[in-house]
Amino acid sequence: MKKILTAVVGVLVVVAAGAGLWIALDSTKAAATVGKIKISEKQLKETVKAIIAERKTVSTTGMTLAYGDSLNAEELNYYVVSTLLAHTLADNKLTVTDAQVKEREASILKQEGSAAKLKAGEVSAGIASKDFPGYVREILSIEALTKFVEKQGTAVADSGTKVQDLVRQLAIKEGVKIDPKYGTWDATQVSVVPPATATSTSPTPAATK
User: Fold this and answer.
1) What pLDDT score was predicted for residue 204?
2) Could you tell me which residues are beta bridge partners of residue 65?
3) Mean pLDDT throughout 62-68?
């Protein structure tokens, strides 16, 4: 959750997803469940595979990239928290429209300067290109919740903490379960924690062609 809450101030470098409700239900084993929503191993593996493949399309010199168990946990966290955010929005009668997502995507692309720079930013942030609209939706969801709590009287300085608390309470209400091989759920930080033996995040020393 802390990675996500920093998204609104750092855009691509720290952006970290989606409506949540779009998550496909299938018969494969669950990597995690949020209430009645299942995040399948197949879904997780496809995202990780896409991220690894896209790293080969840009120079990764100097990037700090997650690997192994750490990467799995990071991407599973994307799906879990996006679902929680979507449900938190719904509980508070808030919405983020597709038009808003498209508009912000265009704004970010313009800010980055080119599609190539955007791709490099996605790789650096651990975002599969197919998931970029979801991450943008997540930023907008956090912004919507932030405005909501501030209208309810929360001080601007405390709004991030309040939003996190709303999502935390929703997580407690619905219940979050993580397959132990992918890590554990930290209810305090609202985040998936990789297994103790996880491969750590580390810098990439050389360019990848």
Assistant:
1) 58
2) 202
3) 94
Question: pLDDT class for 17, splitting at 50, 70, 90?
Answer: very low
pLDDT at residue 18 in the model: 34
* Whether 143 contacts 15, CB under 8 Å: no
Q: Which domain holds residue 27?
A: 2-198
Rounded to whole angstroms, the Cα distance separating 156 from 146 reads 8
CATH number at residue 83: 1.10.4030
In a domain, 205, yes or no: no
Cα 133 to Cα 17: distance, rounded to the nearest angstrom: 7
Using alpha carbons, select from 4, 45, 8, 10 the residue that is nearest to residue 28: 45
pTM here is 0.81
Q: What is the pLDDT of residue 8?
A: 38
Domain count for the chain? 1
Sign of CA dihedral 132, 133, 134, 135: positive
